[in-house]
Each structure stands twice: as C-alpha cells, then as structure tokens.
Amino acid sequence: MLVTGKTVDCLSGVGEARKALLKKLSVLTVGDLLLHIPVRFIDRRFFSLISDIHPGLDATVRGEIVSVTRKPGKRGPSVSAVLSDETGAVTLTFFRSGFPASKLKKGMTVVACGTVESFRGYTIVHPDLYFSRDASQALDAPGMLPVYRLTAGLTQTAVRKLVLSALDAVKDSLEVILPADVLKAAGFSSRWEVFRAAHVPDSPGEADAARNLLVMEELFLYRSILAAVRKNSSLQPGVRLSPVDIEDFQKTLPWALTQAQKKVCLHVSDDLQGTAPMRRLIQGDVGSGKTVVAAYACITTALAGKTAVVLAPTEVLAAQHYRSIGEFCHRYNLNTFLLTGGTTGSQRNAIAREITEKPQCVLVGTHAVLEDWVPLDNLALLVVDEQHRFGVAQRERLLAGRTPRPHSLVMSATPIPRTLAMTFYGDLDVSVLDEMPPGRGSTETRVVDSSDKSDVFQFMLERLRLGERIFLVYPLKEVSEKTDLLDAASAYETVCRGPMAKFGVGLLHGSMSPAEKLSVTERFSKGEISVLVSTTVIEVGIDVPDATVMVIVNAERFGLSQLHQLRGRVGRGSGNAWCFLVPGKNASRISLERLHLLESTSDGFVIAEKDLSFRGPGQVLGTAQHGIPKFKVADLLEDGPVLRKVSNMSPMELHDVRRLMKSQAWRYGDTQLPRI
Fold it and tell me: Could you read off the pLDDT of 325-349 as tens digits, one per residue?
C-alpha cells in the first residue's frame, strides 16, 4: 500500500489519543492529512524593525536578548525578556515558563513572532521563538506559517509537525494524477512539490497555485471515474428495444405532450433502440412532466417482454409513481407493482411470483427493490427519481454484472448549473424539460409580514369553503428545547381546536410509519381531510390538483431550492394557487432578502443558482448524505474557474482510473464508488 493510504498512526507522534482527535477532522490517513489544507497563512517572510512596530501588528522581529527576568508563580515561573535591535526594544512575555521560554538567555540572538500589544511599552505575549543552534549562523525569517482547522486537544504546532512528517514520508511514493504539462504550466516539477507548496509555500501566490492544482486533481479524478463508468458501460451490449411510437403514445393520453416532452421522449426512444445501454439524466423543474417520459420508457420496456424498475427515495414518492405510472400502463394492459419497506411478507411473495411468471411489468419501489430476493433476471430498464438522493454506486448495484446491461434513466427536479451537472452527473447524457404543460394555473408567492398573518388566516378559510385544500409546513416535527422554531405537532393540535378543524385536519412527518404516511396522503388526496400539517416530507411525491394554498412557517430555515420544491406541491391543477412564506421573528435581513427572490421568479434554474451562492452545492444537492463524495479540497462554488478548466480536460484512460481507484480509495472514506 502507498503511504498515502496508510492510517495516520504510522507517523511518529500519533498514538491512539491523537488519532482519535485527528478523526474528528476527518483525517484518517496520511493522504487525508496532506489534503488538510491550511485555512490561511501568516506571512512572516519579512522582518520588521522594532521602531516600526505598533499595537495590533503581527510582527516578525530579530534581535538580541538584553535581559531575562523570571518570577515565581503557582503554575511555574513567568518570564519577561527584552529583545533589542539597532532601532529599539520590545518585551517578550510568557506567563508560564515552558519550552522555549526556559531557554532564553541574555546575549542570545532570536527571532520572535506574534501580535504586538501595548503594556508599559510594546510587548508580545507568548511569541513564537526561533533560535539558531550555531551562534555564527544568521537567522532567516520563518516564512509563510500555515494555520489549520483544529479541534479541541490539537494545537497548530502539533499539526504543523505532523504535516512535515507526512511530507517527508511520501516524498518518493506519490502517484501522478494530473498530466505533467499541467503541473509544469503552474510552475511545479512534481506532485510532491505541489503538496509542499500547499503547506509550506514560499509566497502567497505559490500557495494559491498549489491549492488550485489540488482542487483540479480532485475534480479531475472524480470526473475521470464517472467517465470511466460511462465508457465501461458503453463497451457492454445494451438491451435493444423497439420503442413505442411517440404519436401512438400521445393518443393514449388525455392531454397533449409539450414539445419538450416529445423531444425528450425522442432522446429516450433513440437510446432504447441503440446498441449501447442508455445512461440519461432528465432535468426538469417541478411540474414539467418528467413522470410522463418515465412512463413512456417503462411501457416500451414492458411491451418488449422485459421488466422496468422505478426507484424512488421515499415511500410517499414511490406510491405516487405507482399510481401515476400505473394509470399509463393500465391503458396497455401492463401490470404495475409497488415494493417498499412497508410491503408485507405475503405481498412480497406474491410480487416475486408474478414477476417471475410475467416479467413484462413495471416494478415501482424504494431501496427495497435493491434486495437480492427480487427476481430481476429480465431487468431491462432502471428509472431513478430524485437522482441526487442516490449515489452512482447505488445505481450500479442493480445494473452491474448483467449482460446485456439494462438501460438507466434518472430524473431530478433540482436544477443545477451545467458545470456542476457535468461534475456530479458526468457519466450521463443530459436532457432538459424546459417547458411547462399548458393549462396549469400560476402560483403567487408572498413573504408575509407579521401584520398580515390574520389576513392570510382568513384567506385560508375562504379557500377551504370553496372546497380547496391547504398545506401548513413546519421545519420541525415537535418542539425542541434547543430552538424557538414552531413545530408541526403543536400546530396540528392548535388547528384541530380552531375554525379549520371542521374541514378535516391531518398530520404528516418523517417519523410516522410508511402505512401511516400513505393513509394520511391518500385521505388528503381524496378530500377526506382538507388541511395537511406537515414537515418537509411533502417535498416530493404528493400530487393533489385541488391543493391551492401552502403556508410555510419559519421559511427562512429552508433553502431556496427546497422552498421551490415545496411550493411545487400546489398549483398542479388548472386554477391559481398561493404560497405564503412566513419568516420567524428573528429572521435576519439577508434571510428576508433571500425569501423575496421567490416572489419574483418561478424559474428553478435561477433559484438554484442563487441557492448555490447562499448555501453551496453540498447543502443544495445533499451530497454528503447521498453517495456523492464530499470533496476534501474543492469548493464547487468558489472553484468555478478551476471546474471549467477540468471540464475541458480529457479524462484519464480506463486502465489508469482502475489503478487510481484502488490506490486513492482513501479519499472517499465510506462513500461507495462503483466498480469499473
């Protein structure tokens, strides 16, 4: 194993206690330590004359110790030494005498670094000291001092020593990742030089150049992995299908397909009849009609005598797809099955028997469809909804090892910019549904001032009297001592005691059992209850055309993209709809400005861009939770220029990716990468 992949306790000075502290910083290996890049540097390349220093300055001074005073104390003696150069003197103060203060002697030449304070003249408290072992040798300035992110129990000095030890350990064992000409263009002769400059640079410019190369390396490696996944699958034969004629499919629908839906159906049609397996992502805003395209692909697959699987992240969304896709399939006399964690043993046995006997069907479900007992010998299509909630490896679990390889169609209602899409979905072709179906009403969004709350309440009662339905959304399920946020459970009790109770009130949150969730959503869909008090569990999977009003309480606690997803639950019918954003009493001015953006646009791509600028891609896409590696150096928001450069680079060859995926596996921790 290369040194970078060895656990960090292979370095001198790392025992079990320090290893546990480093783990809190996500530093498990030597490679992790090298990628624990300084958050900033203290520039100590140049000396200051003592006559030029002033309070608040981080000064680096060199001179002779002209006096040393030690005073006893409960925690050991304090030390006060006067350092002098040809222009003046400054006091060096240590409240506890330890190394190196204990080494100070009159007549020594030292370099002292620290923040200047004013106390009976100028003083530097607990300065960093540098001595010369050879009295005849001149002392140089310390240079660029790295400052690292720490955790309690670790010091800057300790981490700096460990990083130097790691640099020494890997000097002759680093693999090449970026092309040599890229390193040379940036002024580096080797990868080790890049790591050295990232931690111990000669100048701020060299530190920036080194960090940019490490960002480029990280993104280049991941994009190469995705490209290898794509190339590897393209080398395998696909399941060639004869697609349903799009015009014939249109005739089975009670409405007209949009031009965008026809275009994307054509992309899917071409993929299904190709020699290589389809790998396509459909991006479309809330309500753009992605499910119709998925149904078209599923029907084509089942009519060819094969099995199609639709994978959804939640049971609520799976049930919604089961109903909607089932309606399309029913027109072709095709069977549709629902398989979730809540499916009983007898139901599972019946589904397995039906699929085995009649594989020409559509199976809709959650992660339960990934279980080994599910009979998918005739799998020809995998549809994954809310793609950002699944990692590449989870998709590959159903697809890898099958010959011919099944097609894959993934969908996302979280619009992201093109460069980010190329990073996260680089193994896929991308189609965009950029047109909304006609006949949809508009949704008006308003940020509600505290003085308007009573008007909103009266408006809700009016809509309920007209037979419409309402969502009340809260950030928490129940009250918490750690926050003053309002919660769904308390609100549900309040609503049940008020004038809206006669219209029927339901409560929905993530801690309910699958059966309870389905029961509540079905009652709301049928109109048995007209007011649904909920957490964000309704973000995806509920399609109720009669729901026209949504009120989101403590709206500042949600991201813009999430708010956009939530308000997409209303306005799905032909009438108009309203979304009221109610900020908390302590919402900041910036939070309110962010919410007002939703009043002015319903364009998901515009909203996603703004959300990225506010929160970053990890929060918008949920990357840490859903199988996409959390990059150790790269910040996809700040490093856009580097990302664009990487997108123009040719990825590595397949055999190089395979080699590096083994040696660089430490980068990805518990994230499961696909096998190639």
Answer: 999 999 999 999 999 988 999 999 9
Q: Work out the average pLDDT over 56-64.
A: 95
pLDDT for position 623:
45
Across-strand partners of 160?
none
CATH superfamily, region 246-433: P-loop containing nucleotide triphosphate hydrolases (3.40.50.300)
Going by pLDDT thresholds of 50, 70 and 90, the confidence category of residue 403 is confident
Q: Helices 290-303 and 315-330, interaxial angle, to 10°?
A: 60
Q: Pick from 191, 157, 193: which is nearest to 176 by CA?
A: 191
Amino acid 653: pLDDT: 85
β-strand pairing of 547-553 with 307-311: unpaired
Rounded-to-integer distance, Cα 597 and Cα 645, Å: 31
N residues, the chain: 676
How far is CA 596 from each of CA 50, 437, 459, 593, rounded to the nearest angstrom?
54, 26, 21, 5
Q: Please give the torsion angle defined by the CA atoms of residues 158, 159, 162 and 167, in that order, rounded to the nearest 10 degrees.
A: -150
Query: For residues 246 and 266, is the Cβ–Cβ distance under 8 A?
Result: yes
Phi first, then psi: give them for residue 61, nearest 5 degrees: -125, 150
Query: Higher confidence at residue 574 or residue 148?
Result: 148
Between 381-390, 531-540, 653-662, the lowest mean confidence (pLDDT) is in 381-390
Phi-psi region of 466 (alpha: psi -120 to 50; beta: other; left: phi over 0): alpha
Give the span between the Cα atoms of 518 and 508, in whole angstroms. 10
Please work out, in degrees rounded to the nearest 5, the angle formed at the alpha carbon of residue 591 by the alpha carbons of 590 and 597: 95
pTM over the 0.85 mark: no
Residue 149: CB atoms within 10 A of its CB come to: 13
Residue with tokens 């099995």: 307
Q: Give the pLDDT band (50/70/90) at residue 538.
A: confident
CATH class of the region 46-141: mainly beta
Buried b (16+ CB within 10 A) or exposed e, 115-124: ebeeeeebbb
Report which of residues 18 and 255 the model is more confident about: 18
Distance CA 62, CA 94 (A): 18
| Record: fold of 443-621 | Rossmann fold (3.40.50)
With a CB cutoff of 8 Å and minimum separation 6, the contacts of 283 are 411, 412, 415, 416, 421, 430, 431, 432, 433
Work out the average pLDDT over 163-180: 93
* Per-residue pLDDT at 666 exceeds 80: no
Examine domains 46-141 and 246-433 and report if their fold is the same: no
Domain ranges (residues) in the chain: 46-141, 246-433, 443-621
